[in-house]
Structure formats: structure tokens, C-alpha cells
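Exercise 7b. C-alpha cells:
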């Protein structure tokens, strides 16, 4: 049973959501059905480092809803983990698909390395068990944590990160760095517009100015992690720097964080993003 949509005046959109092709729980079809039931005018499907769910999501969209092709790329700037959203990316771009294949290969290699460390630490888990938990999604530490839990090596997922997988724990292996500037360029190369995802209250204006200089097109203003003051601050900054506005619930699963359409995000931003994508190419 799907809850009724939140009180709304104008048509709403939600430009940040995940499916089973990354770490979301819904299939592309289920996600689009939920967005339609909640009367959203448009959603963007933005899986982590994957465009595999997009053809299915777009095919599932009826006349009432528009599905924007999107992606959320993990990157690094000065040691910080920054996520960059791409909208209106061409899912057949060979540059993009080749880079995503490389991410995928790097992640598989990293899982092998982490599992080797866990074996040495006396907490062995099988590679196949981890891959089964990832399903079609992008494999990562959450799946290894779940496998550790099922194997009885840890008592909770938190315990898995604290004792083994967290940034300062003994089985931690960093992913090869991918610079935020390169994420922006990759999105542009695939014909998309780049938007800094959930910068958060601690992100400095000067860091965003540097990204603007590197070609960043927009900022995610509305996000569950942004309080009212942060929204106001980033709107003012976007206005000053000439950056586009975007926003979304970062929906992953029912009962986990915000639901699709929970945030009041105006329909108008879709047209502006589309125009920017069209204008750039
Ligand atoms: P990966 O992309 O493989 O490095 O995994 C990153 C994901 O692991 C994040 O998106 C979180 O969902 C999860 N994660 C990272 N650190 C923690 C932590 N300390 N506790 C729980 N989950 C975490
Ligand atoms: Zn996610
Ligand atoms: Fe993110
Ligand atoms: Fe996300």
C-alpha cells in the first residue's frame, strides 16, 4: 500500500533516486510505479556509477510521468568524497560506458582484496556470497558487511564497519581516486549536465567556486540532509555563481530515509536542466 502523496500545490518532481542497479531496493518498474502513484510529474533515476536501470525506467514511464536519465558518480576532491549527479546523459555514450566498466572492474578487484584481508583477520566470507547480496547492483562494503553478519563474524552492520570495513578499520581498502573535475567532464562528454549532489552544510563556498570553474553546472539544493538554512545558503550561492538548482529525496527504499516526492521541488527546474543539457551540445 502506497501512502498518499504529501500535500502539494504545483506539480512536483524528484531528481534523485536509486534502484536495484545500485543500492536501492526497488526495480526500475517499481520505482516508476511508486512515483506515478505519488503523482510526481517527473523523476530522475540516478544510480551510483550505473546507467543500467535507465532503459527499463524510461520504458516503464507512462504518459503521466517523465523519467530523466541520470547517474550519481562518486568522486574525490582534496580527500573529500563528493557525489556528482549527471542529468540527461546519453546512456549509449561509449566514453561513459567504458568508464563505468572500469569502475565495475575496480570494485570487483577491491572486494577480492578486502576478502583477503578478512581471511587473514579470521573473518572469512565467500566472494559468491557477497556478489549474491549485491545482485545486479554496484558491489561495495555494505554487501560485505551483510555477508559478515550472515556468517556470524559480527553482531550488526555497524559492528562490521567499526571492526573491519570502516575508513580506519583493518580491512579497509580505498577505491582508486576519481577526481570530481573528471566526473564533471565525463558527464559533459556524455551530453549531460553536472550537479553537485548534497554538498552539505560543511562544504565551503570556495570549494564550490572551484568546481564552478571546473565546469560544474548546478547544485543539489533540496536534499533530506539539508536543513532550511542550508537550502537558503545554497540558493543564494547558486544565484551568485550562476549555477542551476536541483533537488531530490535520494530515495533508496520504503522505510529507509525520505520517500519519493517528500521534498517540495518545483517542476520548473526540469526545463532549465534540459535546456542546459541541450545548450551544451
Ligand atoms: P563503498 O562504495 O563500497 O565504499 O561503500 C560505501 C557505502 O558503505 C556508503 O554509501 C554507506 O552506505 C556504507 N558505509 C560507509 N561507512 C559506513 C559506516 N561507518 N557504517 C555503515 N555504513 C557505512
Ligand atoms: Zn546510495
Ligand atoms: Fe550521494
Ligand atoms: Fe544518492
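Sequence design result:
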Amino acid at each position: 500500500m502506497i501512502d498518499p502523496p504529501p500535500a502539494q500545490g504545483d506539480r512536483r518532481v524528484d531528481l534523485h533516486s536509486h534502484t536495484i542497479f545500485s543500492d536501492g531496493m526497488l526495480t526500475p518498474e517499481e520505482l516508476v510505479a511508486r512515483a506515478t502513484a505519488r503523482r510526481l510529474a517527473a523523476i530522475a533515476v540516478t544510480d551510483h556509477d550505473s546507467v543500467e536501470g535507465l532503459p527499463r525506467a524510461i520504458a516503464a514511464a507512462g504518459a503521466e510521468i517523465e523519467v530523466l536519465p541520470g547517474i550519481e558518480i562518486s568522486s574525490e576532491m582534496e580527500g573529500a568524497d563528493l557525489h556528482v549527479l549527471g542529468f540527461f546523459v546519453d546512456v549509449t555514450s561509449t566514453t561513459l560506458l567504458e568508464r563505468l566498466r572500469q569502475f565495475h572492474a575496480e570494485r570487483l578487484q577491491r572486494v577480492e582484496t578486502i576478502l583477503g584481508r578478512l581471511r587473514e583477520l579470521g573473518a572469512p566470507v565467500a566472494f559468491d556470497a557477497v556478489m549474491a547480496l549485491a545482485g545486479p547492483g554496484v558491489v561495495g562494503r555494505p554487501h560485505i558487511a551483510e555477508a559478515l553478519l550472515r556468517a556470524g563474524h559480527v553482531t550488526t552492520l555497524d559492528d562490521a564497519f567499526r571492526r573491519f570495513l570502516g575508513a580506519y578499520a583493518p580491512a579497509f581498502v580505498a577505491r582508486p581516486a576519481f577526481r570530481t573535475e573528471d566526473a564533471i567532464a565525463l558527464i559533459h562528454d556524455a551530453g549531460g549536465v553536472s550537479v553537485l549532489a548534497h554538498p552539505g552544510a560543511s562544504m565551503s563556498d570556495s570549494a564550490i567556486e572551484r568546481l564552478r570553474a571546473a565546469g560544474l553546472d548546478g547544485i543539489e539544493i533540496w536534499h533530506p540532509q539539508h536543513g532550511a538554512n542550508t537550502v537558503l545558503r545554497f540558493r543564494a550561492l547558486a544565484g551568485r555563481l550562476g549555477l542551476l538548482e536541483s533537488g531530490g529525496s535520494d530515495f533508496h527504499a520504503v522505510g529507509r530515509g525520505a520517500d519519493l516526492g517528500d521534498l517540495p521541488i518545483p517542476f520548473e527546474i526540469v526545463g532549465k536542466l534540459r535546456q542546459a543539457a541541450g545548450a551544451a551540445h
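Instructor comment: The CA atoms of residues 51 and 91 lie 6 Å apart. The first helix runs from residue 28 to 37.
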